[in-house]
């Protein structure tokens, strides 16, 4: 079964506790917070007007399991319509987060660490990547996953590489004591299942990054998880790490969904620690196919450690945050030319899946050719006020 044929919903849908967001057409003309129960999509906005507020509530599980709300239809039909790009539906699927900050961790797997060093050394030139990859593997090996970041062995390797003039800023965050945590996108900017993701028009070496994304409330409690595509521009970041903002934060450059699955007795952080995240890329113009997987057991920093490094006494997130955990998937299969590695073509279909969370599917376009992002925080609160959902508070 290919990733795009895989179920966009969890394999144990009957047991999964899921929340998300949809856009409702007239007379609502705005976003709604929804729960998924028994295969049905239930509007629970009157109990919490934003997902951010919902995830703060002590009775979160009870609301999602049983709060009254309007039945908006079959969840399978909703995700199918999103994948088909049907904009005419009265109910359309959105990314499942809203006011939360969108943060991401980089270089959390040994393979991605090597690829980041290659990007840096290649100065954004994909033609140099293959030779550099071989050189680095011969010099430092491929067993970096055995190192504890910040541990004695890691620090000895750091000293050795520094003495040979091979130390890298990516090595620093890959095996040093401090994780790389950056702002991926702005609140309200993420696109959801079935939407187009955007590449900056100046980029000619880029790839998807399939990741698990934690949903964390303002108290730094991880309450659930979903899937994400941390779209990556290898040439731009490779030229300079100071271009990270341009490489990572563009129109449509962040996809999250289809839903947030909440932690309960059947699904928890250990499920994620043992998850396998699969990805498939399908080219529509050249029949190109590429598949791979990330095994979360190979992550070098525990997910809860990444949360602690993101949020604490040193930094607060009053609206909560979504945290991308990083990926080990760095596609290097040649596509356009021998030794040229992988880069996206317009129209590529990217599918990211794991059985407990379902499948997130997006198509690839240029960020200046997809719909602009116009509905931000001010628009959200104006819409909620117009619908009378701010003065009433939680039901």
Helix content: 25-40%
Strand content: 25-35%
> Main β-sheet, in a few words?
11 strands, mixed
The whole-angstrom Rg is 21 Å
Averaged pLDDT: 90
Inertia-based shape:
globular
Report what the structure shows.
- The chain has helices at 51-54, 60-66, 75-84, 110-122, 129-140, 152-163, 169-175, 234-239, 244-248, 269-273, 303-310, 377-386, and strands spanning 18-24, 30-37, 40-43, 70-74, 91-94, 101-106, 180-185, 196-199, 206-207, 210-216, 222-230, 232-233, 254-262, 276-282, 289-295, 321-324, 349-354, 358-366.
- The strands form 3 sheets. Strands 1, 2, 3, 4, 5, 6, 7, 10, 11, 13 and 16 form an 11-stranded mixed β-sheet that branches. A 5-stranded mixed β-sheet has the order 8-18-17-14-15, with no helix packed on it.
- The chain is an alpha+beta fold.
- Helices cover 25% and strands 27% of the residues.
Give a brief outline of the structure.
25% of the residues lie in helices and 27% in strands. It is built from twelve helices and 18 strands.
